[in-house]
């Protein structure tokens, strides 16, 4: 993949989280720069949560969803305890094009839930979105039961029909207005009105 926009942290930019509670270290890595150790840690995290129901984690096609361009990882010591991924993409909203950070792979290790790890890894991912001049909004779809988490970390719900490439039917498309859609304002812009076309598979 191409280089990151100026000012966005690279893989070398890791920083300990100094807030009270467990000491965490956040790391932001471009997908193409993931090391073998990074991939192993991600595989352990995702297989531990989803392997029994969804099979093995594939970094380039995670459970049929679009892969991340950028991975925000949260470590406690040497253990990966949280992850947020996003992929930059220009989508259509009504008659407007918007560059979004399509967000997925949001996961916290069961042993660290309830300690604020999810908020911390999300906050670092949002900071990375803000520092990338190409990104106007974060964008994600989620289950209804986790909407409150995203809203508490600065995401806002929008109501619109979403169209995307089918994950199960080659060449097909899917449209729905049922599932929650949330956006994160990374640029001080106003989300446009209209049907959303993701121009690819969801995240």
Description:
It contains three helices and eleven strands. The chain has 203 residues and is an alpha+beta fold. The chain has one domain: Aminopeptidase, CATH 3.40.630. A hairpin with a 6-residue loop joins strand 1 and strand 2. The N terminus is likely disordered.
Attribute tags:
Aminopeptidase, 203 residues, alpha+beta, 20% helix, eleven-stranded mixed sheet, disordered N terminus
Lay out the secondary structure:
Layout lengths: L13 E4 L6 E7 L5 H19 L15 E7 L2 E15 L2 E13 L8 H15 L5 E5 L5 H6 L3 E3 L3 E4 L7 E4 L4 E5 L10 E2 L6
Parallel strand pairs: 5-6, 8-11
Antiparallel strand pairs: 1-2, 2-3, 3-4, 4-5, 4-11, 6-10, 7-10, 8-9
Tell how many strands the DSSP assignment holds.
11
Percent of residues in helices comes to: 10-25%
The tally of domains stands at 1
Name of the CATH class:
Alpha Beta
What is the name of the CATH superfamily? Gcn5-related N-acetyltransferase (GNAT)
**Radius of gyration over all CA atoms, rounded:** 16 Å
User: What can be said about the biggest beta sheet?
Assistant: 11 strands, mixed
Measured distance between first and last alpha carbons: 18 Å
- Secondary-structure element string: EEHEEEHEHEEEEE
| Average pLDDT | 91
Structural class: alpha+beta
- Within the CATH hierarchy, at the fold level, what is the topology? Aminopeptidase
CATH arch. level architecture: 3-Layer(aba) Sandwich
């Amino acid at each position: 993949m191409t280089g990151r926009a100026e000012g966005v942290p690279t893989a070398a930019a890791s920083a300990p989280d100094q807030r009270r509670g467990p000491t965490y270290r956040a790391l932001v890595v471009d997908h193409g720069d993931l090391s073998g150790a990074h991939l192993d840690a991600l595989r352990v995290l995702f297989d531990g949560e989803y392997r029994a129901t969804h099979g093995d984690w594939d970094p380039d096609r995670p459970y049929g969803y679009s892969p991340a361009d950028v991975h925000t990882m949260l470590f406690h010591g040497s253990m990966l305890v949280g992850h947020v991924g996003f992929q930059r993409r220009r989508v259509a909203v009504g008659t407007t094009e918007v560059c979004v950070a399509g967000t997925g792979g949001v996961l916290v290790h069961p042993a660290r839930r309830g300690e604020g790890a999810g908020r911390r890894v999300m906050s670092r991912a949002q900071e990375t979105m803000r520092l990338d001049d190409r990104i106007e909004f974060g964008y994600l779809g989620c289950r209804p039961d986790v909407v409150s988490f995203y809203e508490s970390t600065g995401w806002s719900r929008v109501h619109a029909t979403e169209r995307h490439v089918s994950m199960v039917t080659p060449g097909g498309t899917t449209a729905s207005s049922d599932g929650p859609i949330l956006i994160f304002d990374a640029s001080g812009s106003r989300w446009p009105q209209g049907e959303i076309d993701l121009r690819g598979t969801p995240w």
